Amino acid sequence: MSTRIVSIFVLLILAIACTRVEQVDWEDGTWIDLTYEYSDETIYWPTSDTFQLDTVFVGEAEGGYYYEAYAFASAEHGGTHLDAPIHFYEGGESVEQIEIDQLTGYAVVIDVSEPVADNRDYQIQTSDITSWEEEYGPIPDGSIVLFKTGMGAYWPDAEAYLGTANRGEDALAELSFPGIHPDAAQWIVENRDIKAVGLDTPSLDYGQSERYEAHQVLFEHNIAGFENVANLDQLPTTGAYVIALPMKIKEGSGAPLRIVALVHE
Amino acid sequence: MSTRIVSIFVLLILAIACTRVEQVDWEDGTWIDLTYEYSDETIYWPTSDTFQLDTVFVGEAEGGYYYEAYAFASAEHGGTHLDAPIHFYEGGESVEQIEIDQLTGYAVVIDVSEPVADNRDYQIQTSDITSWEEEYGPIPDGSIVLFKTGMGAYWPDAEAYLGTANRGEDALAELSFPGIHPDAAQWIVENRDIKAVGLDTPSLDYGQSERYEAHQVLFEHNIAGFENVANLDQLPTTGAYVIALPMKIKEGSGAPLRIVALVHE
């Protein structure tokens, strides 16, 4: 073949092949929903308002057509939800100020279910992160880090998931679930450039935290939090693309979050 | 060059080029937020509960750290929101039953702002769709069709956007905005295989509709609706990828929707 024919051939193959890849990138993957439903069963912090759905109308309307509508109420921080930096950091971003780019990125899934199985009050250590990196390489810039503690298996059993099914101030002493140790949060902000952190527990800090310092450290560096994330066991360790879109509450400190991941084979 | 070398060359170029495309596809585009904020200004149907944000706590907590939290309430169908098929079709899908795949897809933007500029009670005609197709080709299977009526320019001025700033049953007679003619909805479900329909008005049907037949036709065919969609003027006619994630309300007939689009140059 002449060089000219070879060139045309290469360009043609490239055009066909790359067009195909661009098209299948979105449409060929599988969406995994990492979100719990809002219902009477949704788990909230013991001192928070819970989810309430009120019927506006259900049935045949006067005009002769079927019609259903509801109204709802909720605390910001229940179910699968976003923590905006302002939740624990004065002057931090509120919900509507967080750019979509900050809420979307490739996921890094760090499995800490082994130490949590031994101790449900476990605090995720810097060594959990560095051990992961020894196997998979440094957490890439722009990642969304998801800690899989295994607590998601207990949802929606509040006693098993939170450590208590009681409600009110007194129940706070009974909270028992794992979270991120403030030193590990500090290591992340000093050493890695990530967009957000999520986990399958109700809080970035562990249940017995009194000052919520992991929250403070991350939020001071404008890293948003995703809490009560569902179905983390369905994600690969790397390669899933996460899209986490909160209800756009102006000046909100948090919001219901619909978080999904696109996974390719 | 021998055929063998040509083959290796082609494969190498392919590998490099296609890997690059897969990697940049997500991260190189620009996210456009097609969502209005929820606040006191958010426009609701005249008979609906509006958005309410209640302060739980703002300031220095007992533990010596900064803390902010709120609770909120809303009707399902206000602001930028999803209409689930069950809203107007008995037995249709409720919010949590709609697959993510149904809420994500390439957008087709059909501009009907010209006839709307002449008549704000305009009903989008089948000919508006077929004219678009004459220029851009048939609406591809799996598209999300977004009608740009131009009404978004009036948000958040309720009188300009809805036709009335009054509230309550009596205000319904004053509603004046465009929507989809039931015949055009019928043409869509009979001739095209789309995932969802959205527009920059408060309702799929026009303001003076009494039976909401465009809703009925689309919902009977399990095509979800996106209403009060923002920033449609920032989308190209084709090529934007839309991701529309509603708050996951179990058995909801609708929900606050965070709808975004990824646009490549």
UniProtKB/TrEMBL annotation, chains A, B:
Signal peptide: none annotated. InterPro entries: KFase/CYL, KFase_sf. SUPFAM superfamilies: Putative cyclase. It holds the Pfam family Cyclase. This is Cyclase family protein. The lineage of its organism: Bacteria, Pseudomonadati, Balneolota, Balneolia, Balneolales.
